[in-house]
Specification:
Length: about 220
């Protein structure tokens, strides 16, 4: 018989889920008008102080890179440390790349776009993931991954670039320590939540998904 799929539960390897731990959901799909690759980390119970701080610092790194304005023809490897700085500040880090190109109904990890030292310079129109994380072996893992489009920045001197995050999924409020975040980071978070509400709210209502709509409103409170 065929060996069990690593993506299917089995009596030997499965275990009971509980509300007392963190969960990392790496999700995505292929659609005719694009490819998604979105990771969210959640905790439905009472996170430890380390879990909350680590999550918040991963989120701060995600935001710092997403709102960065940089000259055109800048290589991704030149700016990827912005996603690590909030972690580095307290001696934390992660051991994987900060993001990869994403194809349009093509490869989820699409060369040659991304933040490694050997990727091509970033240009308007490219899609890349932004995905800092933090992992404590045997304890928990955190990753916050968004899909971002490289766009022209609204600067006096042209052409400068920035990112427009196109994944519209709230972050876990239970894990955010606002006292660690700067006013600019909190403003970014609020404008992101406004965009989620404006774009997804009417669609959930149209589909009569009232429970999902109520969850969205609660999850995107300023």
């Amino acid at each position: 018989s065929d060996p069990p799929s690593p993506h299917s539960p089995s009596n030997g390897s499965s275990r009971t889920l509980s509300a007392r731990e963190m969960y990392l959901f790496d999700t995505g799909g292929q659609y005719l008008d694009g490819t998604t690759d979105i990771t969210r980390t959640v905790h439905w119970g009472e996170p430890t102080p380390l879990q909350k701080e680590a999550y918040t610092r991963v989120l701060m790194g995600n935001i710092d890179l997403a709102r960065l304005v940089f000259p055109s023809d800048t290589a991704g490897g030149t700016v990827e440390s912005f996603a690590r700085r909030a972690l580095w500040d307290v001696g934390l880090n992660y051991g994987h790349g900060t993001g990869h190109g994403i194809g349009n109904f093509l490869s989820v990890h699409e060369w040659p776009v991304g933040f490694q030292s050997n990727n091509v310079p970033l240009e308007a129109g490219m899609f890349t993931s932004i995905e800092p994380g933090y992992y404590l072996d045997g304890e928990f893992g955190i990753r916050i991954e968004d899909v971002a489009l490289v766009v022209e920045a609204q600067t006096e001197e042209k052409p400068f670039l920035t990112f427009e995050v196109v994944s519209l999924v709230p972050y876990d409020r239970n894990l955010i320590d606002l006292s660690l975040m700067s006013p600019e980071q909190i403003r970014y978070l609020n404008s992101y939540y406004e965009r989620i509400r404006a774009q997804l709210g009417p669609e959930l209502r149209r589909q009569q998904l009232e429970e999902a709509h109520a969850w969205l409103q609660e999850s995107t409170e300023p």
